[in-house]
Specification:
alpha/beta; Aspartate Aminotransferase, domain 1; 2 domains; about 15% strand; globular; binds pyridoxal-5'-phosphate
Length: about 425
Amino acid sequence: MTRARQSLPGGVNSPVRSFRGVGGTPPFFNRAEAQFLYDIDGHRYLDLVLAYGPLILGHLHPQVVAAISQQLALGEAFGGPTEAEVELAEQIARRMPSLEMVRLVNSGTEAAMSAIRLARAATGRDLLVKFAGCYHGHSDSLLASAGSGVATFSLPGSPGVPQGTVADTAVLPFNDEEAISAFFARSGDQVAAVIVEPVPGNMGVVLPRAGYLELIRQLTLRHGSLLIFDEVISGFRVGRGGAQGLFSITPDLTCLGKVIGGGLPVGAFGGRRDLMYQLAPEGNVYQAGTLRGNPLAVAAGLAVLSELDQGDSYQRLEALGAQLEAGILGAAQRRGCPLQINRQGSMLTVYFSGHAVTDYQSALEADREAFARVHWELLQRGVFWPPSPFESLFLSLRHEPADIDLVVSAFDAGMAALEAA
Ligand SMILES: *Cc1c(COP(=O)(O)O)cnc(C)c1O
């Protein structure tokens, strides 16, 4: 880690990978297989991070390996259209009918940034609404945080983001029907788009209250604003049709990433044909990329989508998630340890908190020291849990019920250590 810190800020290429929140040094991995990761000292970890969401089939699924290998033999990039990228767009649309047209990009960040540009162009409005605790990548206008007091006044979420860039981004509390109704009553006719993670995973998992997403859909329709679902995590994770399928809500635009790349760098956005037609070269909204629709990534994505259709994938993921939730809740009850679990299928967050977590504020109130302590105990027992209390953990189709039992007993040992402390 000392060597890594010399050449990489914080020793990592993405801050979420750092162990700052939990203390200690992250393992350096050099190999993975199915549901396991191996570090350079030969330790094996049960992987609950899964590259922060993409690896829904686990590591090195035979079909994904075969798809990438076959493509690799044919070429790594062509700089021209391919049949496979058309096929991926069609396969996405088959599962999420709201994506009448799709554009592939290289990351979720790009997907959200571009969807917003398109929404602003299509509506001729600048104002964007996002929610505190929802993450849509690190582009300037999305790195805004709520100012104190008045919700309409946003602050740059990072040094280097000009005040002017976030002046047109309003940040509202998630799950707060009154806040969004009041905002739309006042400024709805200026809103280009509302962007939301329909099942937020970036403040930890938070579930939308019944009727909340429907309300956002109604308000945006009524005021001529667009609704952008950021399904970079939830897409093909929470169900075959993503969160929009699960809740039967049709957004105007959708952002995808993670699962559709099978572990390779991919993002996508898509939606209504009349909107997507405004993108260059069909229209004049500019948006481009050298390695878009990269053949290796597209091959991996197609293999993942096809594999997810085999058998009862989503029921199995749900069963594993339910087993983990029940196991940890049971153990916590026996020990009298106050915690909350928010879960949607195979994405789950444990909060060390005595009250329900429904938004960013309540997530922040969870006990971070307790989390750090339990995280350390889990790691000692070979369980790689995300090193932040505000991340979702993920399960894959390669996890077995016996793996879940192991996680529950490691978590129980972590709570025992908390009691003893
Ligand atoms: C991960 C994530 C992004 C950003 O995707 P990158 O590929 O990391 O740029 C955007 N939105 C959501 C909801 C995400 O979880």
